[in-house]
Amino acid sequence: MAVLLHRLGRSAYRHRKLMLGIWLVVLAALITCAGVFGGKLDDRFTVPGTESQRALDTLGRTLPEASGAGAQIVFTAPEGHHITEAPYKAAIAGTEAVVAKAPQVKAVMGPDLSGAVSADRSTAIVQVQYSVQRAEVRPSSLDVIERAAEAAEKSGLRTSVGGSAYGSNGVHIGPSEIIGVAVAVLVLVVTFGSLLAAGMSLLPALLGVAVGLAGLFALTPAVSISSTAVTLALMLGLAVGIDYILFILTRHRQQLARGTDPQESIALANGTAGSAVVFAGSTVIIALAALSVIGIPFLTVMGLGAAGAVLVAVLAAITLLPALAGFAGTRLTPKPGSKEARRATDPDGSAGRATLGARWVRTVVAKPLLTVLAVAGILVALALPVADLRLALPDNASAPVTATERKAYDTVDDKFGPGFNGPLLVLTETDKGSGAHAGAQAAQQLRDLKGVKAVLPPVPTRDAAQTVIQVIPETGPDSARTDRLVRDIRAAAPDIRDTTGATVAVTGTTAVNIDVSTRLSDSLLPFMAIVVGLSLILLTVVFRSLVVPLKAAVGFLLSVAASLGLVVALFQWGWLADTLGLAHTGPVVSFLPIILIGVLFGLAMDYEVFLVSGMREEWVHTGVARGSVIDGARHSVRVVTAAALIMFTVFAGFFPLDDALIKPIAFALAVGVAIDAFAVRLTLVPAVLALAGRHTWWLPAWLDRVLPDLDVEGTRLQKAPQVQHKEPERAS
């Protein structure tokens, strides 16, 4: 691999104009395709093969208005008045008439038909039903409903609009993300001591992100791509793009400071640091692509989209960076006498004061057992809240308190009960006899179940053998009791069939979301086993050791557990919720743990490779166990610290977004990177390897012969003829 990447870097340097041109042409072509053929983003949650999805698909054919998205217009009378008073009834009726003519609206049901009037007669609900899913509801249709609701306020009513037609707002880049990138630039300037080098790190990363996002948008006509998938691809593409380029560029500048020819320097950097980048990027891609085995299309697209963004970031690092380095030539060389130049020419620090990284590593390994116990104890304490982890998909309760859908949700919860915000649909179907009669009997049995607040009369579909029954739970859509009610209805299905002759299936938005969360919960441990097993295999191959992969796997598990513990404490328990401006606390986003595991696995392997490869090089040269840990780590501490800070600031820049899906994911990734880089890789790893001593690098001889040699450190480059016969070329 190292020899191949060396040739690639050398070729990109020599043909820099062609390489840059290829990237720009690809970007222009993708932007054109996205502009001409690009479709809409699709935020539907579907779970193929589940009862709720099968029933929903059936309703899509026999009663489209029941399977589509719904909106609620909530009317509240002034204090001291009743919503049933004549002026307010007239205003509501007028609103119904206007809304019925709105685009895509299939049916409108006012309080006179549905009886949706609160017990104190202060509030009423108008139900608006679409025949299409939320992702297909046009903003113009919602605008008509919102304007009609505002018009009703002239009569003195207070109104708000909500329902399942509202949801995640998707991608919107704002000041916080720009600040995150600005902080990343500042870190790069401090790390390199050069604006040119900082810009050289940022430019290819941004170009790679642009190519990745344009590619996603260009695929929208053929593939259902969600707004969350685009945001995750943006976060990951930007973060890993800067980090990967940082690793290669740091090695390039060190070699330039030692007098290496620019062309040969970037080729060597591509062959050594670039090999580690390809390995680290591959682990991220594999982990993200593995999300497709769970069988949820939304998550599959999210994982593959993010994996594609990481792939583009790797390609930009090993092809575009060498080309841009060709344009810069010797101008990337650290100035003589600068800290960068001194670090490159005096790596042991013998001529001057030891670096902060070197002092930190010495402190850590001075009392390794104490360090291990302290760090492990802190991480285990942070992980304790995971025992109370509950998973669910967010609803309008997670929207900002100023949003109309949040106001509608809170009013319905207060005046009607939380279950009205997440009704269940029960589809009944009989093989013979009257579907209406069987549906009425089934409704009666459903009323007797624990946790049911109300059961509405059955509604016939276009199929005479079917009816749809709306069941109102006593609890909200994200409550564990609602989950239990869905299970109870399914458990009662055989008895209902025996009594009524009708099969029953629970569906609707709430049931689909519960099934999504259940499948994700069931997939969590198998997915974790796959990721941990993969890390053990990959690191054993790379480092020819048993201790290193075992230690890395345990450290990774501690990082994930501690990160999830902090997520539970903040987003589920509500610790510091007011301080951090959280609109709502409750169950954790159901796919967050799997996303965190997949992403953090790749990043952990990233830092592990860059940190431990230096230790292995020292061990091979010196054979001194503890000395190789100290000397090998201190060369990588600075670049790993800079990479982690950049990754942290990029992820943290997405935390202020008022998006119930993105906010917790951004928080989890930010704290996960910080914990894994600083607590595990830069503290726990050196301490454990110092404790293990010479046993760190032990591998059974038979296993050493069987395993392939990936040569991530690039040792074969010393024997490659193309390294020895370079062709110096003046930079343009």
Automatic annotation (TrEMBL):
Predominant location category: membrane
Q: Where is the SSD domain?
A: 195-327
Arranged from A to Z, the UniProt key words for this protein are: Cell membrane, Membrane, Transmembrane, Transmembrane helix
Compartments where found: Cell membrane
Membrane-spanning ranges: 20-38, 178-198, 205-223, 229-249, 276-299, 305-329, 369-387, 524-543, 555-576, 588-607, 636-655, 667-692
Q: Which InterPro entries match?
A: MMPL_dom (IPR004869), Mycobact_MmpL (IPR050545), SSD (IPR000731)
User: Topology relative to the membrane, per the entry?
Assistant: Multi-pass membrane protein
Domain of life (superkingdom): Bacteria
Pfam families per UniProt: MMPL (PF03176)
Task: From the Swiss-Prot or TrEMBL record, give the protein name.
Answer: MMPL family transporter
Whose protein is this, by species? Streptomyces akebiae
